[in-house]
Amino acid sequence: MSALARSAASWPHVAQGAEAEVLLAALNDGVNLAVWQRSLTDNLQGFVARALASQAPLSVATSITLASENEAPDLSRLFAGLEHVPGHADFVADVQMLVAMYACLLDAECVGLRLRVLDRAMCPRWHVDKVGIRLVTTYYGPGTEWLQNDNLPRDDLGSPAADAWTSLPATGSVDCGSIALLKGESWPGDVGQGIVHRSPRPVMDESRLMLSLDAIG
Fold it and tell me: InterPro entries, alphabetically (predicted)?
């Protein structure tokens, strides 16, 4: 059985499941990756494909202040100009849901949101993030790849020395549509234990549409 095919039970630092509640595991000591395994609806898939084909500018970087933990943010202007494209409302609702859920989980009053269209690996080296907990999901294309905790020397991470480990195969990857919480080195008590991950190699002539969320402040 390949590493990619192994059950998450093989890796005690990883929690995966088909329900959103699995994301709560990211708050536990010893867990540095939690993945809500889900599939995108046909409406969402259709909208994303049409949005990418439109050549409209899709990259977004903004901060969102939550009025209250029980109120979803107003992102109705997300991808302005594509409101007429079928599935736009579904896409906005999905991003709103993820922002609200992430903010509630981390008790964050402000969330940094980035949507990026990528035609190359943004972070091709194995590395860890200097953040607390980051939410990532891919709406189109392959998802983030990750490694078992002790698969390479952490002193090499993110540096040119990590190039020697480029051929090291991923332990697992996050499927398109699934939601991942990646714990970084800035989470209390997690120094030296952040999840090791990298961007996947892009499929030829295809782009990725990736969303990331970070708690601010």
Answer: DUF1826
Name residues whose C-beta falls within 8 Å of residue 183's C-beta, 6 or more positions apart in sequence.
26, 31, 32, 33, 132, 133, 190, 193, 194, 195
**6 occurs within a structural domain:** no
Query: Could you tell me the pLDDT band of residue 55, with boundaries at 50, 70 and 90?
Result: confident
Q: What is the residue range of 172's domain?
A: 12-215
C-alpha span between 201 and 105 (Å, rounded): 31
Average pLDDT, integer, range 110-132: 85
Quote the pTM value: 0.89
Whether 131 maps to a domain, the answer reads yes
In a domain, 4, yes or no: no
